[in-house]
Structure formats: C-alpha cells, structure tokens
Design the sequence.
C-alpha cells in the first residue's frame, strides 16, 4: 500500500516540476527596436509591436 506522504511528496514534486518548466519556458520578450504600432513613434524596445509608453501609459513616460 502506498504511503500517503509518499503520494503527497510525489504530487508536490510533479507540480513543482511543472511550475519550474512553465517559468523557464515562459516567453520573455526582450522587445525589438522599431516603430510602435499604436503611436507610430520610434522606440528602442517594442513588445508585440507596442512601445513602453503605450504598454504602460500610467508610468508617465516623457513625451517624444
Ligand atoms: Zn507607442
């Protein structure tokens, strides 16, 4: 008969493994330089075609 603690440990291990794999394979988009699809300004770092100011307008990036 399987020990409950063993099963729990196995479950936690499997879950942890999945979480780590998900974190490692999560696409971190470093961005690319180019023209923003939204405001059409040149940006040194577009993520999915959108510049930092358009992605996070609340941060109050300076104009230009
Ligand atoms: Zn923009």
Sequence:
């Amino acid at each position: 008969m399987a020990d409950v603690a063993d099963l729990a440990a196995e479950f936690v291990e499997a879950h942890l493994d999945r979480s780590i794999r998900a974190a490692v394979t999560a696409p971190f988009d470093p961005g690319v330089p180019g023209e923003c699809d939204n405001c059409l300004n040149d940006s040194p770092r577009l993520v999915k075609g959108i510049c930092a100011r358009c992605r996070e307008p609340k941060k109050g990036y300076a104009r230009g």
Notes: The first helix runs from residue 4 to 25. The beta strands are 32-35, 42-46.
